């Protein structure tokens, strides 16, 4: 009898998936950057940090930025959903408002992670942020692992996966954009690879250290690596198709178009049109997310009532 | 050897565990034997473990603005089979009588015509809703779920303290307490057969489905919650999850043509039974408080036209008014022609001529309660109150006799409770939960035992800093014998396990090389 889900729940599930993925990806990026900075002390810390802000879509401000500020604003800030802690907090609240749709184990995973963050944050002040970042990655993996093993493959599941896939495309594109569009203080290719958790997968395919523009090709076009834009787009499209909308589906269209474009793109063409392609990808993700919201989450917020004859509030 | 019960001094009340110091009641013998050898630090450790598990599971409540783990004491409260039989019959009887009263009050009003209950009681109740008049609920059920608060007095007899037939809460804690106890203290359950509590959700769902409007073959049931910021949100979510139904908020529902629909990703879907966990006042801004943004406009009209069932029904508040409470023994005799199985606590009705003066004269020896209060708010315990409070209370009662009742202060029974690193007696009560499906009033074995955590305190509500205990109902006789041996014959065929390479290095014949 539970073949349908409430629009509100669907929205909460999508965003739970998105926010957990965001926390995971942010933690990977921060980890890769920190590592890089330590290995190469001659790098310009301010410039490196600025490129981090650019990737994550935050404003770095006019003052010089250092790594501690990066951690405070992009990891430990509980009020911003661009930061790890804020994203996990939002994921927890979303899961809580969809409490009967996510499995108890998934909810407990998010809830206990949220409660564990404070301790790790304090420890990070003394011993560095690695344990904190690792906890976030592990728990994100646990969350999606539990989703995988405890959720039926129904619409609820599809909304979680849809959210995760859209966020994945978005994060990969953000990483590449900084490298491609803003070469001044961009991360090098190997950092990009490890920030996507893709260094080993890349090495296996291209047998070698990823210090070439081929990395962009891998992160965008690889069919098998789950964080590549093509793979994530394909997953998102499968979800939308199964969610059962007509063929002229405004949510599926932008994604499907780009997916086909990526499928048949060759290396040379990709290199030539990379900046445009990245912009198109980002636009497609946004358009699709908006169309999903419009189609599936049509409820309004709380209704306000004014009594007849009463003063306008 | 010193143990945690050594310094246990009985308070001036019936103690659930000990007859007198050192002499334990039969039902508690195995528990005492299991707890006695445990070091206090070990007990503390387990208590902390439990608190942590509750925090991680999100079993928390808001106290003084912060989120705290649900307080569960490690010593269970035990009811033997005889005691439980009495409670169960008494609670069911009470629910049947209140059910009959509601049907009467929103129907023929016989009890008022016959002078059993004065008219003014009904007409002056803020919970008497014209809108509920004439709604004929399916199966005649208005009280789908009830929570009847019991206490055990100085002589060891159970008495009813109050009835809750609007939106009684707490049942999720019964389920969670048992879950936590079996995990933290599995050894306690070894010696005795404790009746399980996990059938509640199934019973509730069956009762809700039975309450669906006539003609609906496969009714859709939903739980209506005020939202995640509500103190009982955990319970709403747990019940929805255990029943496998949707947990909706007011704005997930929409009323159209006197029907209720919910907004889903596949369009609007009809709803037939709403187990609502918000008060009448907030349910429908068109009928009740127009500033309510958590309700669903139009839902009451849909209920009136019979396309949707609200559980519990609207207007039930007239039956758990504390002034009506004083009439319930009469109602049991009037409607059911039975003697009350569970007595009330002796009470006064200040609104009756003559009684007001009697109450005001001995106000320092009585418990004064607002007829409308919930969560232990507004209660003044005469013998423990200071002069100023008493004076204020006296004025309030004199100004509005209908708004108050007075009761003899009952020394609630005590139970050993972990306080720091030792056991101390603390006052407890009991809230059994009853589910009415129209044919039978079923009472969940046990119920919620609440504990007043401060010494001598008589108010057990969690909103006042109270704790809880797992409540055991013992099955009659010894622990059940294991299920009968399977019929003789060949054992069922078992498929062999498959094995692959196990990773161990094969022993290489050495010596071949030289």
From TrEMBL, chain A:
Residues 6-297 form the DUF403 domain. Signal peptide: none annotated. It comes from the Bacteria. This is DUF403 domain-containing protein. It comes from Streptomyces lacrimifluminis.
Automatic annotation (TrEMBL), chain B:
Gene3D superfamilies: 3.30.1490.270, 3.40.50.11290. It comes from the Bacteria. Transmembrane segments: none annotated. Residues 76-452 form the Circularly permuted ATP-grasp type domain. Residues 481-494 have a biased composition (Pro residues). Residues 461-514 are annotated as: Disordered. This is Circularly permuted ATP-grasp type 2 domain-containing protein.
């Amino acid at each position: 009898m539970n073949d349908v889900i409430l629009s509100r729940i669907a929205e909460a599930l999508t965003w739970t998936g998105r926010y957990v993925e965001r926390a995971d990806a942010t933690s990977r990026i921060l980890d890769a950057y920190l590592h890089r900075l330590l290995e190469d002390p001659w790098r310009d810390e301010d410039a490196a940090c600025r490129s981090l802000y650019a990737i994550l879509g935050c404003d770095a401000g006019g003052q010089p930025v250092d790594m501690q500020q990066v951690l405070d604003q992009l990891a430990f800030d509980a009020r911003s959903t661009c930061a790890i802690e804020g994203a996990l907090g939002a994921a927890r609240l979303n899961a809580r408002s969809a409490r009967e749709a996510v499995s108890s184990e998934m909810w407990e995973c998010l809830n206990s992670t949220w409660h564990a963050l404070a301790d790790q944050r304090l420890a990070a002040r003394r011993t560095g942020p690695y344990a904190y970042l690792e906890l976030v990655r592990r728990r994100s993996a646990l969350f999606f692992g539990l989703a995988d093993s405890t959720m039926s493959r129904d619409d609820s599941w599809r909304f979680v996966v849809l959210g995760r896939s859209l966020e994945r495309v978005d994060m990969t594109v953000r990483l590449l954009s900084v490298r491609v569009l803003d070469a001044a203080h961009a991360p090098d290719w190997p950092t990009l690879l490890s920030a996507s958790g893709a260094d080993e997968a890349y090495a296996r395919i291209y047998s070698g250290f990823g210090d070439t523009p081929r990395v962009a090709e891998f992160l965008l076009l690889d069919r098998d690596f789950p964080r590549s834009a093509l793979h994530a787009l394909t997953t998102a499209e499968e979800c939308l198709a199964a969610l059962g909308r007509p063929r002229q589906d405004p949510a599926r269209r932008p994604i499907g178009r780009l997916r086909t474009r990526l499928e048949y793109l060759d290396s040379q063409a990709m290199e030539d049109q990379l900046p445009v392609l990245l912009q198109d990808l980002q636009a497609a993700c946004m358009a699709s997310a908006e169309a999903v919201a419009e189609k599936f989450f049509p409820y309004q917020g709380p209704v306000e009532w004014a009594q007849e004859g009463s003063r306008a509030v | 050897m010193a143990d945690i019960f050594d310094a246990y001094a009985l308070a001036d009340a019936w103690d659930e565990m000990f007859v007198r110091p050192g002499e334990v009641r039969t039902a508690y013998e195995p528990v005492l034997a299991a707890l006695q050898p445990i070091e206090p630090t070990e007990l503390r450790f387990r208590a902390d473990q439990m608190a942590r598990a509750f925090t991680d599971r999100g079993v928390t409540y808001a106290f003084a603005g912060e989120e705290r783990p649900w307080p569960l004491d490690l010593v269970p409260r035990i009811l033997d089979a005889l005691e439980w039989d009495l409670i169960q019959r008494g609670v069911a009887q009470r629910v049947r009588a209140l059910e009959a009263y509601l049907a009467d009050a929103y129907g023929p009003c016989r009890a008022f015509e016959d002078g059993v209950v004065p008219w003014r009681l009904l007409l002056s109740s803020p919970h008497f809703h014209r809108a509920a008049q004439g709604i004929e609920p399916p199966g005649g059920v208005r009280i789908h779920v009830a929570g009847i608060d019991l206490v055990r007095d100085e002589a060891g007899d159970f008495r009813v303290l109050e009835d809750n037939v609007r939106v009684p809460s707490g049942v999720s804690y019964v389920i969670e307490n048992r879950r936590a106890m079996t995990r933290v203290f599995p050894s306690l359950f070894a010696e005795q057969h404790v009746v399980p509590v996990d059938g509640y959700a199934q019973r509730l769902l069956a009762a809700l489905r039975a309450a669906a409007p006539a003609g609906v073959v496969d009714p859709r049931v939903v739980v209506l919650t005020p939202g995640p910021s509500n103190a009982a949100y955990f319970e709403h979510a747990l019940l929805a999850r255990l029943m496998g139904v949707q947990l909706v908020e007011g704005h997930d529902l929409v009323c159209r043509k006197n029907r209720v629909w919910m907004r889903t990703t596949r369009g609007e879907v009809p709803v037939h039974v709403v187990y609502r966990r918000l008060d009448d006042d907030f349910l429908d801004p068109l009928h009740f408080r127009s500033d309510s943004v958590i309700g669903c406009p139009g839902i009451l009209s849909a209920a009136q036209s019979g396309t949707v069932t609200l559980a519990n029904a609207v207007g039930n508040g007239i039956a758990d008014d504390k002034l009506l409470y004083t009439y319930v023994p009469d109602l049991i005799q009037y409607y059911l022609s039975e003697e009350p199985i569970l007595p009330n606590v002796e009470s006064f009705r200040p609104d009756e001529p003559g009684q007001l003066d009697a109450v005001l004269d001995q106000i320092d020896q009585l418990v004064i309660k607002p007829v409308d209060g919930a969560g232990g708010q507004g209660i003044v315990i005469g013998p423990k109150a200071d002069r100023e409070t008493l004076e204020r209370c006296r004025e309030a009662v004199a100004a509005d006799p209908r708004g108050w009742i007075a009761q003899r202060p009952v020394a609630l029974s005590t139970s050993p409770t972990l306080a720091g690193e030792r056991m101390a007696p603390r006052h407890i009560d009991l809230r059994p939960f009853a589910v009415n499906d129209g044919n039978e009033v079923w009472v969940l074995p046990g119920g919620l035992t609440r504990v007043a955590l401060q010494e001598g305190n008589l108010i057990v509500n969690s909103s006042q800093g109270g704790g809880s205990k797992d409540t055991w109902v013992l099955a009659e006789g010894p622990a059940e014998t294991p299920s009968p041996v399977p019929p003789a014959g060949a054992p069922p065929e078992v498929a062999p396990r498959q094995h692959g390479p196990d990773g161990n290095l094969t022993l290489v014949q050495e010596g071949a090389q030289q």
